Amino acid sequence: MTDAPRKSGAPAQFGLVVLAGVGAVALTWLVARAWPDLPVERATVASVAFIPIWTLLALALLTWRRRAAPGSGRRRLFAVHRGLGGALALVAMLIFGSGVGAVLDRALARWQVVHAPAADVPPVTEQPLDAVLSGLLAAHPDLVRSELSLHPAAPEHPWIEVVYFGPTREPVRVDFDPRSGARVAEGRGPLWVVRELHRRLLTQPLLGETVLGLLGFALALILCTGLATRRDWLRNLVRRRRPAQPLAMRMHQWVGFFTLPAALLWAWTGALFGLTLIVVPIVGGAAYGGDRPALMRDVLASDRPPLVDTAVPRPDLQRALAARCPVVDEHLADAEVHQLRVRHPGLASGTVRVDLEGDGLFERGSFTRAADGALRDCRALPAAGAGLQAFMATIVLHYGEWGPAWLVDLAYVLLGAGLVALSWLGGALLARRRERDGEARSAERLRRWLYGLGYGLPLATAALLLLSRVPALARAEDLALRVFVAVLVLALLLARTISRAPVLLHGALVVLLAAVPPAGWLVAGVVPGPVEVVLVVLAFALLSLRRPLAPA
């Protein structure tokens, strides 16, 4: 009698994963309670460990059986990889593909702004930050009871960017000239849609982030169980004489081999960010006795004192920038100002927090001053403990906000594209298996979904790039959302209903990519540059293919 997995074992496997989650909660609480260090260290060590603990416990429970036959554990992991991977192949393509779009949104921020200010950006000490704040408070008096985020201009984004929440709690972005302080644009560039799809699935943050957190854990489980898909798979990758395998299988293994570290890092950290609804009560209750404001203050430097509705002079931002603090001066002398968070400007409960960033992984710090100028908080990550450093490193590594920007962005885009290809190939293998098992209609249906999403997401992103070249539409946030959804849904519908849809979608992608440079030149007078060259090269590369990219 063999111990091979059965198709009806999915509920049992789900139960084991849930049981592993319960065990992970208990172990995380124990770490946050008993770790021999300060409360902030106990909380951050436990937070970083939660998702890996859950993953390892789930793998252990899925493979453990009493008196199991040799190799049965590997076969069970293979069943999990095939079943869960097949169920989430399209979801993985959407998450990793939108992650690439999120990196592009940051990397192309300056390129997306049609009328960007002059490139010779003055130093932050000479930028009219106080005039910008005064103008906003005069135009929106209710902001004195709110919070604003000001990003000083820099060469990669030569404008002062201000973000605050509107009356309905939606984020409002306004850009200002870094020399005159004049308003130059309002609204986010079109690629904000892809970024927010990756961060919260374009839904309410609580719902979207929680769902993405669970999906991140599931993707981590798929990646780890992928190591068990073949016996001696690593040796088979490098030896000259390999057993006969389909090309898609070999490509799937090779792409997985090179992208596994980055994919696992992104899946774990994404799950950690998304599951704060679970993580924060665990570590806050164990390390801080339920005092969540103290946890947020110690970990994220988020000090939110109660509103004191007593008018005081408006904060002097340039004076706050000049009045740094000893810890920051000692450890982050060369770090640049990343943003200023101004809370309750003009009220007695107001604060100004200055965030600083350098190129290194741990070159982060901040200091906070009260309305009367008193120093409320001063911290530099190089001087923090290992737990807080590890926690902050997860944030920096996930978003890629470290090192030379061009190199990190290029690496993240290539790795993200590789993970989309990994998911695509996994879906192709599943379709091949269904076809071999006599499920021809199911296999064809899966292939069409792969076509629809595989072409739909790049098409929708290219449509947003085209919008960014039209001055009147470059900041039309609602229109960008409607265009993205319409293009993506149309691609999915075409792939489901028209047999020649792959050819049509392939041609549409070539046309859209090739149309962006001339549209920018003719409509907005934008002289073609490196980005336009890359788009044209991509269009010609796709055009040179004899047939559309096939998922099998």
Automatic annotation (TrEMBL):
| Pfam families linked to this entry | PepSY_TM (PF03929)
Q: Which UniProt keywords apply?
A: Membrane, Transmembrane, Transmembrane helix
- Does the keyword Transmembrane helix feature in the UniProt annotation? yes
Q: Which domain of life is it from?
A: Bacteria
Question: Quick check: keyword Membrane in the entry?
Answer: yes
Transmembrane portions of the chain: 12-32, 44-64, 84-104, 206-227, 272-290, 380-399, 411-430, 450-467, 479-496, 503-521, 527-545
Give the protein's recorded name: PepSY-associated TM helix domain-containing protein
User: What is the organism of origin for this protein?
Assistant: Nannocystis punicea
